[in-house]
Amino acid sequence: MPGYSADLSPLIAATARWLVSAYPAVGGAMSTALAEAQARQAATVAAWLRYPTAVDAALAALTGAGGSGRLDRLLGAAGGDRDGPGGFGDPERAWRTWVDEVVASWAACLLSCPELARSAVAALSPGNGTGGGSGGFGEFRRLTAPDVHDRRAAPLLRHPDLVAGVADLHRADLIARLRDDSVAG
Fold it and tell me: Are residues 23 and 71 in contact, defined by beta-carbon separation less than 8 angstroms?
């Protein structure tokens, strides 16, 4: 775990929460927990790739993540960027200001394609220019090698066609980032 992960924690948590809200789990509490774990792992990998250094993470924390407004509009959710009840001014929705659109898009890419997820986790290995230095595939097993329970819990979150609208927003940037890491590594 990188030393700056605490700086990205609100961004990761909010983005994972948005993903699970947009693509809810199917089933009971166990399915919800499994879907949340998968979204959290995807958002973590995406955030570490997007903000690879402590300086990048600090700048993201300082300038803000941008919020979920565009993502909410894309999915037809009401009140994504308004103040007042249901908008960002609503204390119940303040967490949405921490959602990072690029991280959400990259996470959707990773969730809908385990092969891409494995490439992304490999890019986090020490020496690849990312601050990740993660424990590798085992730390992100629910993302890189989802079992039948993971897939059953999050069929909407992992369905390539359903997440395509979000994933396609910044997919090219993720692929370019991973390509750059494979050349540098």
Answer: no
